[in-house]
Design brief:
UDP-N-acetylmuramoyl-L-alanine:D-glutamate ligase, alpha/beta
Length: 307
């Protein structure tokens, strides 16, 4: 089945504990207020959101296992996500994680190193036919050569693709229609480098739009040879920042597919991310386009009426 968006990336089954207060310090205690068992992962979150916005989606990436197939499949069916390209391994538990959320902080615990030490059983290769049949592609960088292969297939098929948190001199960034680089990735992979200098490097080496996100700080975006632009994040009452980056990337995919300008693209993505920061979990609170449009209108009105 042809889908508007083909997403090659992370899908996990998450157990999310929302603490009644802030996350405890080492040796401390916290009361669990709410618990959810639902899908997560960059690609799965984006697929659910894009489906809610009216686009058809198809997934590729990690095999589902005996502990994850039912839970992930239930939500895929709920949102009409095509998972025919996702493998199932009856000898594999599946990719799971445990997430603690407290205030605006979160901690993610998983077995990712163990799961992804055996590439032949933990994920499948990108689907060339699904990529060629799509209108746009989203690629996570977590599957070394397989992620690069997805980018190559997209280029061969003439399909734009959006990626996240990839090195400035890597295959993924060079031909991406947009690359979204988070503050956490910049701090861990380019310590000591200023955002200003690093952004110039990213913009000059990429064919598309480069975007630096910084949590509650300003976002910077631009293209090679153009001035760097800035967008302030929207201010909302945050319930959780879990999945904010996944949401932002989904907004970029939607915006590029609909021909938004760069500024409109970043604003839409930032607004969608802000909206989802008021909800937990993403999987149970996917908005439709009318809801997002109304939310953005209210945010704009609030900004205009501030003294």
């Amino acid at each position: 089945m042809a889908a508007d968006v083909y997403l090659f990336g992370m899908t996990v089954l998450s157990t999310i504990h929302r603490c009644a207060s802030a996350l405890p310090l080492a040796g401390g205690y916290a009361e669990i207020g709410e618990t959810y068992v639902c899908p997560g992962g960059e690609a799965m979150n984006a697929a659910m959101l894009l489906s809610g916005l009216g686009l058809s989606t198809a997934l590729g990436g990690p095999h589902w296992g005996v502990e994850t197939r039912e839970g992930l499949g239930r939500y895929a069916e709920r949102y009409g996500i095509d998972v025919s390209g996702v493998g199932f391994d009856a000898g594999f538990a599946g990719v799971r994680d445990l997430v603690l959320v407290g205030g605006q902080e979160r901690a993610v615990l998983g077995w990712f190193g163990r799961y992804f030490s055996a590439t032949e059983r933990c994920w499948g290769e990108p689907d060339a036919e699904a990529i060629a049949a799509s209108r746009i592609v989203a690629i996570d960088p977590f599957f070394p050569r397989s992620s690069e292969r997805a980018a190559e297939l997209a280029q061969q098929a003439g399909k734009p693709y959006v990626t996240i948190d990839c090195p400035l001199d890597g295959v993924l960034h060079q031909a991406a229609a947009a690359s979204v680089i988070s503050r956490e990735y910049r701090a861990s992979h380019y310590p000591g480098q200023s955002d200003e200098a690093l952004f110039r490097e990213y913009a000059s080496r990429g064919a598309g739009l480069s975007i630096f996100t910084s949590g509650s700080g300003p976002m910077h975006f631009g293209r090679a040879g153009a001035a760097v632009e800035t967008c302030a994040p929207f201010v909302v009452d945050v319930k959780s920042t879990l999945g904010a980056g996944d949401t932002f990337r989904a907004g970029v995919v939607f915006a590029l597919l609909h021909g938004f300008t760069d500024a409109q693209c970043v604003r839409f993505a930032a607004g969608l991310a802000a909206m989802m920061c008021t909800r937990l979990p993403i999987a149970d609170h996917v908005p439709n386009l009318d809801e997002v449009t109304e939310f953005l209108h209210k945010l704009d009105s609030s900004i205009r009426t501030r003294p």
